[in-house]
Amino acid sequence: MANLQLKDIRKSFGAVEVIKGVSLEIESGEFMVFVGPSGCGKSTLLRLVAGLEDITSGELKFDGQVVNALTPSKRGIAMVFQSYALYPHMTVYENMAFGMTLEKGHSKEEIRQRVERAADMLQIREYLGRLPKQLSGGQRQRVAIGRAITRDPRVFLFDEPLSNLDAALRVATRIEIAKLHESMHNTTMIYVTHDQVEAMTLADRICVLRDGLVEQVGTPMELYERPDSMFVAGFIGSPK
Ligand code: ADP
Ligand code: MG
Description:
The chain is of the alpha/beta class. It is about 35% helix and about 25% strand. The structure holds adenosine-5'-diphosphate (ADP) and magnesium ion. Adenosine-5'-diphosphate (ADP) binds near residues 39, 43 and 44. Its main location: membrane.
């Protein structure tokens, strides 16, 4: 069974429809990348999956269960944003533990183990006692990813997580994310980017969005070799 099913999802802000009927199935453990030009609805779609926005019409299912009405914390998702959104007054450890402390029923010891495991995966253990302002941009973004791992989500959502990093760090962090997916076999990842190289190297499948609609879905090779339209060809086939 597909892990995530989107059925004719629509979203309007006031009178303006920005997601215009998106249907898509994402398999368990799949790395799905949403690409498309600025303003096509990538972030909105991600926010609908996360539950940060209400769906205007359509059905969203996780593991066969309709989740339209579930709050974000009940969906088992973790989201990593473009801006790191760490709490400035909390240490790295506290930032990473915070999501778990909000959920009831985790012992201090369990929280500590999960934070340390995530910190080891991302090689940020030595920074656990620091404040965000004592870290570089790249380190902060690793903490944001570490915080998501700590929550042990069934779905990871990334919204252009690398776009604030310089070129070298972007490559290093991209490789980190690929490794992370490999080591978390059953965790579905949805990753938004407008960077073709990121899309081509990370994705199991790419979903090309255009003006609130799915233009084409396929593996990077399928889209590269058999684009359905000039739009897709232009987006996938012309490396910058
Ligand atoms: P992308 O992430 O692909 O750049 P977005 O999902 O951010 O695109 O935005 C898609 C469209 O929806 C844009 O036209 C944007 O202005 C509009 N939009 C997004 N969020 C809101 C909002 N809260 N209120 C009104 N319009 C919005
Ligand atoms: Mg966006």
